Amino acid sequence: MPETGWRWAPAWVLAFVALWPAPGYAEGVLVLGALVAIWKLLRARFRGGMRLLSGPAWALTSVMFAAYWTPQLISAFDAVDPAKTVGDVLTDLRYLPFLWLVAASVANAESRRRTFGGLGIIVAIWVVDALLQAVSGTSPLFAMIDNAKHAISGHGMCRVEDVLAVDRLSGVLGPCNLKLGQVIASLSPFALFLAARRFGAAGWLFAAAAVGLVIVLAGSRASWITFGLVLLLSGWRLLGWKRLLGVFAFGAVALVVLTFTVPQVRERVERTRVALAGGEQHVDTALSGRGRIWSAAVCMVREHPLNGVGTRRFRENFPACDPAPGEPAEWGEGPALHAHQIVLEILSETGAIGLLLWLAGAAQAWRAWRYADARMRAQARPAMLALVVTVFPLNTHLAFYSTFWGGLTLMLCALYAGSLLANDREPTGASA
């Protein structure tokens, strides 16, 4: 069977991720990549073969996209603004050919090394940049991007008030896009697997310490949970349970030290302690208003149980379901933008039909893993782990039907499908 893939596919994927700090350019890479994928697929099929993707990888990538996209379409029929919702749904079709390109970027051993290794290097660069910001107060990478933006348009990436209000490590994404912790946590498996492959257990431990420090300083407690899962699911294979318990013990001590030395970390730990004091108001305060948002999401599910209120229509429906109208919100002015929890987001925006379709997609992904052999699982493990921790339901989340986080999640789906069901096989090496 001829080798599948395309040698330039890894470059498209890495460019897409590297440009996340400049969303407009990243979106441009996505659209151009989608057009290239369509051209490559048509050309390959006319030549009589699946040169870009294996049949199973093509099928699983498409099924996982359908599990994400079809609920959007079904939710549009009785949304608050059907025309806009349908427009968003049709626009999201651009993801499908790009996902085929992403899957092609891991379709053979050499491409997998380039793509997974490149993602690990990007994470490492962002971590070093964030550590420099922790020491100096400025992210060198974001400063470079901001200066370029000033030179091009006469204004910076962020408003002055956003810069003044920032209370955590923002890194390359900047003070007006405080997603550094979640992004690093979700992509951390690629950095840890790269470190383990190059330097063994010592490399994994060093990378875990550096990444963990950045994630704690970035301030998102959801990303702490995500990274904890990464350490748990990858570390036990490499270190064993006893040494892994030592890693968590070291992490707990480090968190205590940071709590007493870094005001921002202390504030978030204190918020968590408040939740343990009991009472609905305490919990809502500790969760930055999540309790109020989740109550509103449950109301939307009750009012629109079958197909939800429409994807990205949470904010328009929030005032009607707000359990405390007129009271100041923990998150600031305006309505809540999304449900901040994957199950509640799917149920409130796409209803029970949407949840069933998501579960169907997850079942197909699990079925492919279950019937894969050991080598297939080994070559897909970094992508599998990144995807699992990103959609882990017992956590709070960014909006999966937003352009940024939806694009990240779908990319992980395609990396998983493409690497698990690649035609080639490679020997298992050192892995986390």
Automatic annotation (TrEMBL):
Residues 207-359 form the O-antigen ligase-related domain. Keywords: Membrane, Transmembrane, Transmembrane helix. The keyword Membrane applies. The keyword Membrane applies. It comes from the Bacteria. InterPro entries: O-antigen_ligase-rel_domated, WaaL-like. It is found in: Membrane. It is a multi-pass membrane protein. The chain crosses the membrane at residues 12-38, 50-69, 89-109, 116-135, 178-196, 203-224, 244-263, 380-398. This is Membrane protein. It comes from Cognatilysobacter xinjiangensis.
